[in-house]
Amino acid sequence: MMLKAFPSSQSNITDESARVYLFAVEDFSLDAIKRACRLFVRGEIKGRNNAFAPSAPELADACKTAEGQIKVEHYEAERVFVEAGSPLWKQLQIHRGDHSLPTFQRDGKDGWFFTKDDCRQAEMIALPPTISEQQMAINATRVKGLIGQVTTFNSADDDKHDMGQRGAA
Fold first, then answer.
1. Could you give the CA distance from residue 120 to residue 6 in angstroms, rounded to a whole number?
2. CA proximity to 130, closest of 96, 92, 90
3. What b/e string do you get for 34-61 counting C-beta neighbours within 10 Å, with b at 16 or more?
4. Rounded CA gap, 36 and 30, in Å?
5. Residue 87 vs residue 99, higher pLDDT
6. 107-162: per-residue pLDDT in tens?
7. Where are the alpha helices (DSSP H) in the chain?
8. Helix (H, G, I), strand (E, B), or coil: what is residue 31?
9. Are 52 and 2 in contact (CB under 8 A)?
10. CA 85, CA 88: separation in Å to the nearest integer?
């Protein structure tokens, strides 16, 4: 049917040429072959003269590309793209015990594809409430104060003093 879409090639099409095309695409799924043929008939294959039918190798190459696209579509249909840094991303990090999850850029956003089951399980994890910028500044000041107290308490002079008292006892 695809070959009939190219009238300029009609005089060259024989039963033998159809067999060559079938031989070239026999290892591809029917969906990939249909998709590739559609692309040729619609003139959507770049860099070629659309007045003529594709060669068998051109059709096989387009089928290979279509097969890869179909695999990607099936993979993505079975998974959920989760944007890095989102609440679900954080839940997945906790759920999987992995804080260095892989990332992939899709539509200008970093993230990864996770199974729907993984996402359902991760969504059951409660995240702590977010902390405001003001509260983070307060907490940082408190931590600095605590670090200062620990450093002062454990200074080298205190250790010498403690050792001297222990030796005297």
1. 50
2. 90
3. ebbbebbbeeebeeeeeeebbebeebbe
4. 10
5. 87
6. 999 999 999 999 999 999 998 888 888 988 998 888 887 777 765 555 555 555 55
7. 15-25, 30-41, 56-77, 87-96, 116-123, 133-153, 156-168
8. helix
9. no
10. 8
